[in-house]
Amino acid sequence: MPDILIASDAEWLHREITSVLSSPDTRVRSVSSGPAVLPAARQKLPDLAILDLQIRNMGAMAVALELRLEEGAGRLGHVPVLMLLDRRPDVYLARKSSADGWLMKPIDPLRLRRAVAALTALTGGGTYFDPSYQPNPVAVSPEPQTVPSGTVVDSGK
């Protein structure tokens, strides 16, 4: 039975995640502040911690770093971290804080389930990176282009 710990000060986010992940074989716990994550993890090591980037006094980045420091010191086992991000540039923060995965808000239920399946220790652990953070690809024409002055610009081929 996977044990999932949610950390956010937004009650709507707790409700949304719980409604997506609730099942007879999944336990979902919630804390409403960053400093409450470590004691909850010490009480029972979760299979996954879902951390909201924006928590009033200690957000996901600080919580993830704290979990990694405790793990490195041998005081806590590994807790996979799924970080909930607000915008594309926040991916930098998720990477720097050693998050095992991230999702962009608003939460897509299918992506959330995929992320949980990929990150939980029950499936061997792993990573999950929401592809929606990546910029849209731009198609570049291989043919020479004409600029307004009438000169032809070589495309480099």
CATH architecture: 3-Layer(aba) Sandwich
- Gyration radius over CA: 20 Å
The overall pLDDT average reads 86
Shape: elongated
Total strand segments: 8
Biggest β-sheet description: 6 strands, parallel
Output the helix-strand order. Answer: EHEHEHEHEHEEE
Distance between the termini: 57 Å
Tell me what portion of residues adopts beta-strand conformation. Answer: 15-25%
CATH superfamily: Response regulator
The number of helical segments is 5
Proportion of residues in helical segments: 25-40%
Give the number of domains: 1
CATH third-level topology: Rossmann fold
Poorly predicted runs are none
Under the CATH scheme, which class? Alpha Beta
What would you call the structural class? alpha/beta
As laid out across the biggest beta sheet, the strand order is: 2-1-3-4-5-6
